[in-house]
Design goal:
CATH architecture of the largest domain: 3-Layer(aba) Sandwich
Number of domains: 3
CATH topology of the largest domain: Rossmann fold
Shape: globular
Strand order of the largest sheet: 2-3-1-4-5-7-6
Oligomer: single chain
Largest sheet: 7 strands, mixed
Strand content: 15-25%
Helix content: 25-40%
Structural class: alpha/beta
Radius of gyration: 25 Å
CATH class of the largest domain: Alpha Beta
Number of strands: 19
Distance between the termini: 68 Å
Length: 477
């Protein structure tokens, strides 16, 4: 089998228009000028290119996601397989199937797709990827032409997986991989929360331990697989893997939701009788050796059970869609100042008129919000946001004393909250030096009744904040 990678990319316009964006060749050339491309057929919007290794293709894919994942003008469809006979034909078929799926949204007959770049790899490519790259793709699906894996959308929330890992090709590793691929990954894909499962060996950071600790404390969901029973122990005995026990303890201390999976062939100590544990068959055929279809049906049922529990636990969290007041959780990296949404209620997405907030950079969201604010309010709002970030990073604010002073004042263009004012109010602040992260939970209060235009400052102020006038001297012309 060839190890060379063949990749095809097509460009499909979101809506019919006389104006057309640049061609897909121009888009690729702007990002990777040294990569040769070949036009497929007569369309200038379908090209192919080859790479010696997947990691080379991944560099281009990541760049395309960074640049165009939220494009309002077009979709990019990417398909990848091994460079063998008829590979180009297979890629064209996969992309055609994807384009057909997007056509109703493209023609305005369905709500627009939430993202703009879609990538599929064939199953043979996926199986030969290292865990670092397998992490980027969902469970397999059977298309009309091949078994493929769809890439997770950019900023998909993470579900951290606690599991024994073991050495390559060890029984422990094989069992951990089997449970991950057969139960955990399908469950995350089936959940309405739309999570991307990540095990420690799949992490992409340079320092695994701090990133792992951050995931255990902050990820919206953690799944803990206890691993197989140790040789020599009876079914009534179980010896915890030290790493699993340690990581479980961190998650328990964080007070965040988690799910525990265990093999069916052993029992847990009495002290764990009140913890909800989902048993996993040691092998599929253990369910019913004489009925393979029943085994597959039971695997699917088990995955759906895990998915349902994921949704129920996340729904019960304070920042879930069940919270009437718009709410969010922000993670701010100490040192770099990078701030992202780790949780966001549906009410907040309505307030910001923006979907899929989880994972988005706070600065990107702020720019979106400012477009719906009166021009006089934008710089004051910017200055206030920068002040908040600076005080948090420098440690100048003690706990909840760091708070917003300039409200969001929407103009008449907001579809739901025109001429309404909202102010961010912190509920909790956790500064974790070990993880290099600050986590803030907050809500957005409607302060319209207490907001007025200040003739001296030349922007809207909330009378509840006791705004300091010197804060905004820089906004005066």
């Amino acid at each position: 089998m060839s190890t060379d990678i063949l990749m095809a990319i097509s460009l499909n316009h979101r809506l019919k228009s006389e104006e057309r964006p640049q061609s897909v060749s121009a888009i690729v050339k702007a990002i990777a000028p040294s990569v040769p491309t070949k036009q497929i057929g007569r369309s200038s919007n379908l090209i192919s290119m080859s790479f010696e290794e997947y990691k080379d293709a991944e560099i281009l894919i990541e760049s395309l996601y960074d640049a165009y994942s939220e494009s309002a003008e077009f979709f990019l469809c990417i398909a990848i397989t091994f460079a063998e006979d008829d590979a180009e034909i297979l890629l064209v078929q996969i992309i055609a199937e994807l384009a057909a799926r997007l056509k109703p949204a493209q023609e305005g007959k369905e709500p627009p797709a939430r993202h703009s770049v879609f990538t599929y790899v064939t199953d043979d490519v996926y199986k030969r990827l290292p865990p670092l790259y397998q992490d980027l793709y969902q469970r397999s699906i059977e298309s009309e032409n091949a078994i493929v894996h769809e890439r997770f959308a950019k900023n998909t929330p993470r579900c951290f997986i606690v599991s024994p890992i073991g050495a390559d090709d060890s029984d422990i590793r094989k069992r951990a991989d089997y449970v991950f691929d057969t139960y955990i990954k399908p469950a995350c894909g089936l959940s309405s929360s739309g999570l991307r499962p990540v095990r420690a060996d799949m992490m992409r950071g340079t320092e695994i331990t701090p990133e792992m600790k951050q995931a255990l404390e902050f990820d919206p969901m953690v799944i803990i697989y206890l691993g197989p029973a140790m040789p020599g122990f009876s079914s009534n005995e179980f010896l915890f893997n030290n790493n699993v026990a340690f990581e479980w303890g961190i998650r328990e201390e964080a007070g965040k939701p988690y799910i525990v999976l265990k093999d069916m062939n052993y029992s847990l100590p009495f002290d764990f009788k009140d913890i909800r544990v989902i048993p996993i068959p040691e092998k599929p055929e253990d369910i019913d050796p004489k009925n393979p279809k029943k085994a597959l049906d039971n695997i699917s049922l088990k995955a759906r059970t895990i998915a349902s529990l994921i949704d129920n636990l996340i729904e019960a969290e304070p920042c879930s869609s069940g919270n009437v007041i718009p709410s969010a959780t922000f993670d701010i990296r100490i040192g770099g100042g990078e701030a992202k949404f780790s949780e966001a209620s549906k009410e907040l997405e309505a307030l910001f008129d923006m979907t899929n907030l989880v994972g988005k950079d706070v600065r990107v969201v702020s720019e979106h919000i400012k477009k719906m604010m009166y021009p006089c309010q934008r710089k004051a709002f910017d200055d206030d946001q920068n002040r908040i970030l600076g005080e948090l990073l420098l440690g100048g604010g003690s706990g909840l004393s760091v708070r917003a002073k300039v409200p969001i004042m929407f103009n008449e263009g907001h579809p739901k909250y025109a001429n309404r004012a909202f102010l961010a109010m912190p509920l909790s602040l956790n500064r974790n030096e070990a993880a290099g992260m600050i986590r803030i939970q907050g809500i957005y209060i409607d302060v319209t009744a207490a907001t007025k235009f200040d003739e001296e400052l030349k922007y809207y102020i909330c009378q509840l904040t006791g705004v300091e006038r010197e804060l905004s001297q820089s906004v005066k012309q």
